[in-house]
Amino acid sequence: xxxxxxxYFCQLALLGNFTRAALxxxxxxxxxxxxxxxxxxxxxLKLINRAEKNALLTAEGEVLYKLATELLNxxxxxxxxxxxxxxxxxxxxxxxxxxxxxxxYFPKVLTKFKQKYPKIKIQLIDQGTAALEKMLQNGELDLAxxxxxxxxxxxxxxxxxxxxxVAGMSNLHPLASEQxxxxxxxxxxxxxxxxxxxxxREVVSQYAKDHHLDLDVRMETNLIELQKSLVRNxxxxxxxxxRILHNEQKMxxxxxxxxxxxxLSLAWKKSHSLSNASKAFMSFLSSTLEPLA
Length: 293
Fold this sequence. Notes:
Layout: H1 3-15, H2 18-25, H3 29-43, E1 48-50, E2 55-57, H4 59-86, E3 91-97, H5 99-104, H6 106-116, E4 120-126, H7 129-137, E5 143-147, E6 155-170, H8 183-187, E7 190-193, H9 199-210, E8 216-220, H10 224-232, E9 238-241, E10 251-269, H11 276-288
């Protein structure tokens, strides 16, 4: 059975749309359609119900999707094992990290790692922790830096970072002189926040939902520098880690009361065997980021 066609089929099953799946895979939509038709001919079953906009799995397609996912995961493990046997210092790591962490924690760390292991390739994927967790479960990532306070039974974790979330605001903001700020006070201000799916946004959204508060969100962006510029110009206030504002002369950080901890762990799928390259990366991160805990 053609593994490449199975990969295409699984991607189509995940996204439910030929156009999005073809874009994700990096091929033309007609090529994806032909590959799926050949797969259906190969197995002698109809796998896809082609609705007007969506591609929904038939009952037979659902069965094949589960089997194909297991088969592709096993094939990946074979590749990793053979890769390790060839050279312990070669390999590719698919590593997921949020925009904020990628921008402020990892540039120097990744540079040092590449200097130590120049033959190991790192594919960096930028998403929120919720999306990264799903990608780990689907076998799309080897490692990811995600929330460590809500552990998924399918994943293994090792804690790397434990910091405090603060409110970031212009020095001219009326609350800038306060020693602490409550989430209730924060939620009553004009806000500049991350998109949904990022912990620094979710903690605010969940509080507002629990207390029936309407948030005045003036801007949503995952671009840290844009977010800081908007806050400096008093468009709104935001949530961030205090270290991000260390060199900002026009901004200040105010701790929350009660304080909000930001715990991030390095996670990987329990059923996957990590390559030696991934193990080396884990060990390097644990030793390098230890002072941040």
